[in-house]
Structure formats: C-alpha cells, structure tokens
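Ops channel
N.P.: pipeline sanity check, posting one input/output pair.
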C-alpha cells in the first residue's frame, strides 16, 4: 500500500463497558501507562495510510478531553448513540461525502498490528468490495439448547471470528446502516449491515492477538500483546 492513499477511521468509543464491570468505561482503563483508547489511537495514527480518526464519544464522557491526544489535529470527535451501530452511523455522518472508503475500528481493540491493517487496505486496490479482519475459529464448536445441553457440534469449516477494523465504501456502509436501523435489525458489526442488504464482504485473515478488551481477564492478555509489540519495535530499532 503506497503512502499516498489515506483513509479516515471511525472509532466507536461511546460504550459503557458493562461486561468489564469497572467504575469507568473500559476504554479509559490503563495498560502499560496509557489508556486503552490511547494505545488504539496511537497505533492507527502511526500507520502511513490513516489520514485522521473520528472518535465517537458518549454525551456523558468527561475523560476524553483530558487526554493529551485530544488536541492532536488528526483526532476529531463527535457524539454517539445508544447502540454501537448508532455510534458508527454518527461517525459516518461526520465525514465529508468526498471520502470514498472508511475504516471502522473498536476503541477497545488496542493490539491492532500495522501489517494486518495494510492487508485489509489492500482490498481498495482490487475493487469496490469491502471486507473485515477476521480470524478462523480454533476450538470445536458446540451449539447449545435452552437447557444448557449440546444440541449438536457445529462444523468449524469456514467459521471465523469477526474482528475490526472493517473497511467499506462510505456511501454503501451509510445506506446499509440506515436501512437496518429503519427496519430495526440488530447490527453488531459493519459487515452485518452489508450482509443485511445482500452485498458481499471479503474476509481478510488477521492476528488473533487483535482482541477486544471485553471482560476483566482480557486486560492481562492485552498487556501481554502490547508489551510483545513494544519489544518487537525496540528490537527492530536496534538492529
Ligand atoms: N453505544 C455504543 C456501544 C459501544 N460502542 C463502542 O463499540 C466498541 C465495541 O463494543 P463493546 O465491546 O460491546 O463495548 P461496550 O458496549 O462498551 O461493552 P459492553 O457491551 O460490555 O457494555 C467499543 O469501543 C465501544 O465503546 C459505542 O461506540 N457506542
Ligand atoms: C464489532 C465487533 O468487535 C466485531 O467482533 C463486535 O461485534 C462488537 O460487539 P460484541 O457485542 O462484543 O460482539
């Protein structure tokens, strides 16, 4: 990917982190001396093909403006909504209609690797079909029933974990999200909106280390991956 193509990123960060059960929204928990959202934004802004990042905040947010990154001219903010999809749509509406492609990435995924983002962005070279980072499931998959017993074993073939970033043409994603919202279809990621309007989404294999910090036990795992990435960068700089 050349350094001349530049893409905006929408970063939904208006969630409360119910499953994390912390006193503050999980994106403001600190790992290795920095909040999770600062790790995420720093990793995005240091990629040569990212133009700027639109952070979608809750109207109750009092923390973001206190972070040094808040005054970075490549960091913009807007207000989100009740569900993640509402926040993403608010972010898309902030963008100029001149933008062709848009990336959407969770604030709560601080361990994104540049190589994975470059592989995803390579889709913009080959056509108009968007795609997502994803990782193949590894375990044997069971479908349970309402009694908590196994109904059957699901085939692992072609089964993937959906990750972010997700990359789509701006207008396609905006109209798919609006249509899903009007029809009250629950949307948990951008790809599901595009699937809802019967359009194709490509899968780009990404690292399983690109975890979403969701539950308390994920904090230690994110710390491990972030320190591994910092060590690798240090090693690169000294060889
Ligand atoms: N109304 C919402 C809900 C979620 N998000 C963002 O979407 C990303 C992924 O969502 P998730 O991990 O589910 O975050 P939360 O909604 O905060 O967590 P929980 O579901 O445990 O409450 C997070 O960066 C979160 O801040 C958002 O911008 N607006
Ligand atoms: C967008 C996402 O991170 C893809 O894995 C995810 O769908 C966010 O919401 P979830 O409720 O944690 O699945």
């Amino acid at each position: 990917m050349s350094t001349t193509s530049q893409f905006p990123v929408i970063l939904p960060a208006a969630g409360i982190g119910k499953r994390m059960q912390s006193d503050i929204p999980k994106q403001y928990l600190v790992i290795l001396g920095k909040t999770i959202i600062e790790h995420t934004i720093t990793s995005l802004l240091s990629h040569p093909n990212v133009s700027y990042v639109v952070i979608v905040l809750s109207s109750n947010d009092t923390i973001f403006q206190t972070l040094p990154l808040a005054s970075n001219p490549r960091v913009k903010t807007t207000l989100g909504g009740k569900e993640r999809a509402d926040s993403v749509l608010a972010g898309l509406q902030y963008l100029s209609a001149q933008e062709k492609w848009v990336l959407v990435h969770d604030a709560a995924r601080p361990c994104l690797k540049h190589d994975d983002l470059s592989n995803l962005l390579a889709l913009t070279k080959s056509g108009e079909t968007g795609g997502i980072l994803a990782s193949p499931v590894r375990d044997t998959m069971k479908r349970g029933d309402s009694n908590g017993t196994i109904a059957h074993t699901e085939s692992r073939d072609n089964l993937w974990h959906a990750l972010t970033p997700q990359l789509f043409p701006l207008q396609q994603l905006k109209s798919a999200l609006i249509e899903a919202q009007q029809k009250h279809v629950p949307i948990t990621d951008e790809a599901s909106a595009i699937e809802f309007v019967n359009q194709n989404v490509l899968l780009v294999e990404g690292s399983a280390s690109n975890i979403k910090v969701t539950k308390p036990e994920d904090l230690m795992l994110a710390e491990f991956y972030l320190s591994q990435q910092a060590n690798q960068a240090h090693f690169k700089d000294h060889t």
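N.P.: looks fine end to end. Residues 84, 106, 162-164, 188-189, 212, 214 surround LQXTBERG (ligand 2) (CB under 6 Å).
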